[in-house]
Every structure is written in C-alpha cells, then in structure tokens.
Amino acid sequence: MRPPRAAEARRVAGIVTRLLAGVGGGYAVAGLADAWLATSLPMPRVEAVLTSGMLSFVILAVCIVFAFAARQAWRAAAGIAILAAILAGLLWLQGHAP
Predict the structure, then answer these.
(1) 8 A C-beta contact, residue 19 and residue 70
(2) Torsion over CA of 7, 10, 11 and 17, rounded to 10 degrees?
(3) Is the CB of residue 35 less than 8 Å from the CB of residue 96?
(4) In angstroms, rounded to a whole number, what is the distance separating the alpha carbons of residues 43 and 11?
(5) Is 68 helix (H, G, I), strand (E, B) or coil?
C-alpha cells in the first residue's frame, strides 16, 4: 500500500530541505569558520590557514550530520543559520567583512 501523495510530498520536501540546509548552509558555515579560525588561531599565519582549512571539512561534515539528525527540518535550517550568523558576527567584530 502506497502512502498518500501529500504525505510523500512532505517527506520529499523534508529531505530536500535538510539536504539544502546541510550542504548549502554547511558550506557557508565552514567558509565562515575557516575565515574566522585563520585570523584567530595563535600560530604563524601559514599554519593557521592550513589548520583552519582542514577543520572546515570537519565542520561541513558535522553540519550535514546535524541537518539529518534534527527532529524537524526547520530546526536544522535554523540551527545552521544561527551558527552562520554567530560566525559572521565574530568576523565583523574582528574587523573582517564576511
């Protein structure tokens, strides 16, 4: 027995929303975190850039996992958007425009 079309459409919409939040939002968060860490880590500039670049891949993966672990798709998107806003604010406070 197949589920009703409306239920199937909601399920697919939830998956697409989580995918966009995890991959798209995660990419934005990883980029902002990369920029913030590169300017904040207390080490030589080259090492800070390399370290923040490697950590950004971990941050992207965590955002994708979080997007699919959240109970509701809107919570996943909101959580990732809040994290992006915090990182953008930290960059702005340092004097670097995101």
Answers:
(1) no
(2) 180
(3) yes
(4) 46
(5) helix
Residue with tokens 């197949």: 2
Rounded to an integer, what distance in angstroms lies between the CA atom of residue 69 and that of residue 55?
21
Whether the CB-CB separation of 68 and 79 falls below 8 Å is answered with: no
Q: How many CB atoms lie within 10 A of CB 31?
A: 16
User: Residue 14 half-sphere exposure, CB side, CA atoms within 13 Å?
Assistant: 13
pLDDT digits (tens, 9 = 90+) for 36-93: 999 999 999 999 999 999 999 999 999 999 999 999 989 999 999 999 999 999 999 9
**Cα-only R_g, the chain:** 17
